[in-house]
Specification:
The chain is built from one helix and nine strands, in the order αβββββββββ. It is mainly beta.
Amino acid sequence: MKSVLLAVAALVALSGGAFAADVVTELPVAASYNWSGAYLGAQAGYGWGDSKFHDSVDSNPFDIRGLVGGVTAGYNYQFQPSWVVGAEADVSYSAVKGSFGPGNIGQPDGSSWGCFPGACDTKVHWYGTARARVGYAIDNLLIYGTGGLAFGQVESQIENIPGWYVKHTNVGWAAGAGAEYALDAHWTTKIEYMHIDLGWTNHPEAIKASAKFDAVRIGLNYKF
């Protein structure tokens, strides 16, 4: 009787082991997301920074701020196996603007520098960037840094003074960092911080005005 029980126990053990092996074999293997490929998308956010006018002496910096939003295109290449490199370009509408001088509550009146009888104004009408990206992927999550060229149309003036108005397309630089998450094989969403410096806008009267700002943007991309 004892030998029969031992034989039954051995049979159950062997059957259970085989069943467990089948279960392990049939379990799906978690696949890592592949970030390689081209993509198109849209992004929007908020920018804030400062501007100042300059001749022989700088004016006080004054705030510029406003909404930003536009379109994005890029390409990623994943290697080794979690590093991702790529290139990205974007063009955005901008409502980033501000003033220094008469009529601006909480700001100096500007008369000691020359923003009188009108205020010194700076407006960024649009801007774009062309940047490299380097990141590290953890399956569906990509953490990245980015930097490169920035360009945009900047308008600046001293109000009510004829000739002290200019609107130029400036070239500068941009740098930042962000996180992007893959929702499925094609759609990704991101949040990123970017610093944009559009350099100086030169006035005919030997005056120049700066425009630089930070922006936090959220985006949605479609990967092909």
